[in-house]
Automatic annotation (TrEMBL):
Key words, A-Z: Cell projection, Cilium, Coiled coil, Cytoplasm, Flagellum
Source organism superkingdom: Eukaryota
Coiled coil ranges: 168-195
GO cellular component, one term: nucleus
InterPro entries referenced in this protein's UniProt entry, alphabetically: Tektin-like, Tektins
GO biological process, one term: cilium assembly
Taxonomic source organism: Euphydryas editha
Family classification: Belongs to the tektin family.
The protein's name: Tektin
Keyword Cell membrane included in the entry's annotation: no
Localization (cell): Cytoplasm, Cytoskeleton, Cilium axoneme
Length: 499
């Protein structure tokens, strides 16, 4: 591996002579590492070392030292083999003979080379004369071709200017018409946006009416005609709003298409104006014009993208697309205006129907409320009579307690009679029958009392139900008459949509 530049290394001297004990020590060899002047991109940088040779200690040369295959004692690998300059001739005489100098060319070869140079000079001179004659003939032909070509090119450029001017005028007229149509589309777009925003007001009022009616209690939360009309009105408003949004999206898309077509027309008009300027300048150029220059290889560069027929077809297609988009825009303007008028009529009709349903519902609620108040008055009178009956029953039960005590006391006292005197006589039987009769009477009175109390509780429940119904009716009447109709009364629905 190569060492870095300017890096000093300590190299140990190696000698094929076997070291002998007591011999003087050999000083270490000092060298520097240098890089090769030419770098190889396909392999690492190579390096070499410049060293200073130190004379080895004097020692008689022996056959062992001259032998190139000498291996010192203690080495594990074979040493390098170097050619021996002393005994090389004896071993390879042919190699030594090839090292001598010898003559490379003969006299005959030298003469043949001179004759070859003479013949080549004559051939080149004759070829030069033929080339000069061809050049003079070509100069006359090219002068005529250049003049005729410049004349034809000027005429074709003039025709091209006429065609480009015609299509430029057509594109300019069509662009003016398209710009006017785009302005009308923008006005319709703003009108649709105002209509969508105007529906938010009636829709908010209808939703508020539904939210207020959700506050009704009990059976007043009925799916009546008013709620059906409100839900239908919400559906109508949202349907109209969706129609407006769809139409607005179509108008925006058509506006984008018109702007894209307008951009194509503007680009085509700008390109034609630019091309007219270039063609006019080219038509006015001649051999004596200023600013003429050479452009090497310009004839091989082909920047064209189509031929004349395709160019005229492209211009006609651009005009046709513009006319088609303009016709679509005019039809869309008519559809948008009809949609706004029809939707405003539908919304107003549904608004009026909902107000009529509210009026009928309010009248029904007032009538039912008056009837409930009449029934509540009758229930209160009946409850007063039942309460009087309960008082009579309680008094009758209390009146039966004293006779029951007397009968119980007599029976208790007769239990104290002596042995055989404890007989079941008529008095004993009568006392037992009296107690039973009193108990049956009290049970019957208590049953009637329970029935009367149940009736009283039932009347209380009916009264509470009637009072609750009256409260519900009053709350529903307040919601429909004051809150909902207060919001809906006098709102300019049609003006909000057609504004």
């Amino acid at each position: 591996m190569a060492k870095e530049v300017s890096m000093c290394t300590q190299l140990q001297q190696w000698s094929p002579v076997k070291e002998t004990p007591g011999a003087p020590s050999i000083p270490p060899q000092v060298g520097y590492c240098f890089h090769s002047p030419k770098k190889h991109p396909w392999r690492p940088i190579m390096g070499y070392e410049e060293i200073e040779v130190t004379p080895m200690p004097s020692q008689p040369i022996t056959n062992t030292m001259v032998d190139p295959c000498y291996t010192p004692a203690g080495m594990a690998t074979e040493p390098l083999r170097f050619p021996n300059l002393v005994t090389g001739f004896d071993r390879s005489p042919e190699h030594a003979a090839r090292a001598a100098l010898y003559t490379r060319y003969t006299q005959n070869e030298w003469n043949q080379n001179s004759i070859k140079n003479y013949n080549e000079s004559d051939a080149k001179r004759n070829f030069s004369e033929r080339v000069r004659n061809d050049i003079m003939r070509m100069l006359r032909e090219t002068d005529e071709i250049g003049t005729q070509g410049q004349r034809d090119s000027g005429r074709r450029i003039g025709e091209r200017i006429t065609d480009t001017t015609f299509w430029r005028n057509e594109v300019s007229i069509e662009m003016e018409r398209l710009v006017a149509t785009c302005e009308k589309l923008n006005d319709t777009r703003r009108q649709l946006e105002r209509a969508i925003a105007g529906i938010e007001g009636p829709l908010h009022i209808v939703q508020e009416c539904l939210y207020h009616r959700e506050k009704r209690q009990g059976l007043e939360q009925v799916h009546d005609a008013v709620e059906q009309s409100l839900l239908k009105e919400v559906a109508t408003l949202r349907e109209c709003q969706d129609k407006f949004r769809n139409m607005l999206e179509k108008v925006r898309q058509q506006s984008k298409n018109c702007r894209a077509t307008q951009h194509e027309l503007e680009t085509d008009l700008r390109n034609k104006e630019y091309a007219l300027g270039i063609d006019n300048m080219c038509h006015q150029l001649n051999n004596f014009s200023k600013g003429l220059q050479f452009y090497a290889g310009i004839e091989r560069y082909d920047p064209t993208v189509c031929d004349a027929a395709r160019w005229a077809a492209a211009s006609a297609a651009t005009l046709q697309r513009s006319q088609s988009e303009r016709a679509k825009a005019v039809q869309m303007l008519s559809d948008a205006e009809n949609l706004i008028n029809v939707s405003a009529t539908e919304i107003w009709d549904q608004w009026s129907n909902t107000n009529s349903a509210f009026t009928r519902r309010i009248a029904e609620t007032i009538e039912i409320k008056n009837k409930l108040q009449l029934h509540l008055h009758k229930i209160q009178q009946e409850m007063f009579v039942v309460e009087k009956t309960l008082e009579l029953l309680n008094k009758a039960i209390e009146d039966k307690l004293q006779p029951m005590k007397v009968a119980h006391t007599r029976l208790q006292a007769r239990t104290a009679r002596p042995h055989l005197e404890k007989c079941r006589d008529d008095a004993q039987n009568r006392l037992v029958r009296e107690v039973c009769e009193l108990q049956e009477t009290m049970e019957a009175l208590r049953g009637k009392l329970a029935t009367a109390e149940g009736t009283h509780q039932t009347l209380l429940g009916v009264r509470a139900g009637l009072e609750a119904e009256l409260r519900y009716k009053s709350a529903a009447l307040f919601i429909d008459r004051d809150q909902c109709m207060g919001l809906r009364r006098g709102y300019p629905v049609t003006a909000a949509i057609k504004a």
